[in-house]
Write a structure and sequence with these properties.
Chain lengths: ~170, ~100
């Protein structure tokens, strides 16, 4: 019972943050509501017993990635976005279609899937067991992601550098 | 005890919010944040299924998704900075040509 209440609280906060991201017109407000979404998702992960994922959700997503976003928003001095009017067909057919589709999907998932309740905290998810998986069974993908991150770092530096700076280093080197 | 389907519905709502934001938003940074929202919805369903089937590899996949998302956001934000430097705007309606 307590778990259901906690799930509902975190879920409502999560959906409210997601809707607020859509409603706000200034990007910095959207970024802060995305932080709320990620923080409450970390709570959901804790309810599922996934401590490691909850920790890296807070550290990597709510910490590192969102700081990067806020930094870029401030760097570019982004103002409120101009709203443009969508087409009328989208409003006439899109919104009812979206409502019908999502209600149908939710009904199928809740009523017909026949899933039993997820035992809370039953998953053995301490960092030790995840490390055993990560460094034994998934060793090759792990190394490949490290190469990917290295490429991403170099790509970000090259893309974000001023063109004059690149010319300058070419002349010197 | 929370049924698995509740987690899946929450994950679907998050993903739908991400798709909606991707379609209706006009600021390129907010569109990028909508993509992150979609990734988060997928991560939630990964962890929920991992708890359902007692398969820890679901959490490892969430780890990989997070690494790829971090790399993607670093490169994407660098591209946004480069685009802003040449166009002086973040509105995607005005960024419709690859060539200046």
């Amino acid at each position: 019972m307590l778990h259901l209440v906690l799930f509902l609280i975190f879920g409502v906060v999560c959906v409210a943050g997601a809707v607020n991201l859509l409603v706000q017109s200034h990007p910095i407000n959207s970024a802060l509501s995305l932080v709320v979404v990620m923080g409450s998702l970390a709570g959901e992960y804790l309810l599922l017993g996934a401590e490691f994922v909850a920790a890296i959700q807070v550290i990597v997503y709510a910490g590192a990635i969102m700081v990067l976003f806020v930094f870029v928003i401030m760097l570019l001095n982004a103002g409120a976005e101009e709203r443009t009017r969508g087409s009328r067909i989208a409003v006439l057919f899109g919104i009812p279609g979206l409502l019908v589709g999502s209600i149908l999907l939710a009904w199928v998932l809740v009523a017909r899937s026949g899933s039993q309740a997820v035992p809370v905290g039953a998953l053995p998810g301490p960092p030790r067991e995840i490390a055993m998986l990560l460094f034994h069974d998934f060793l090759l993908p792990f190394e490949v992601t490290s190469v990917l991150v290295l490429i991403a770092i170099m790509g970000a530096v090259v893309l974000a550098a001023r063109p004059e700076a690149i010319e300058h280093t070419k002349k010197e080197g | 005890m929370v049924p698995l389907s509740y987690y899946l519905v929450l994950s679907g709502i998050l993903f739908a919010c991400g798709v909606l934001g991707f379609l209706i938003k006009r600021n390129i940074i907010t569109i990028f944040m909508s993509i992150e929202l979609m990734l988060n919805g997928v991560n939630l369903s990964f962890v929920a299924f991992a708890a359902q089937w007692h398969a820890l590899s679901g959490q490892v996949f969430v780890f990989f998704v997070m690494v790829v998302a971090a790399a993607e956001s670093a490169v994407g934000l660098a591209i946004i900075i480069a685009v802003y430097r040449t166009r002086q705007t973040l509105n995607v309606d005005q960024i419709n040509l690859l060539k200046l």
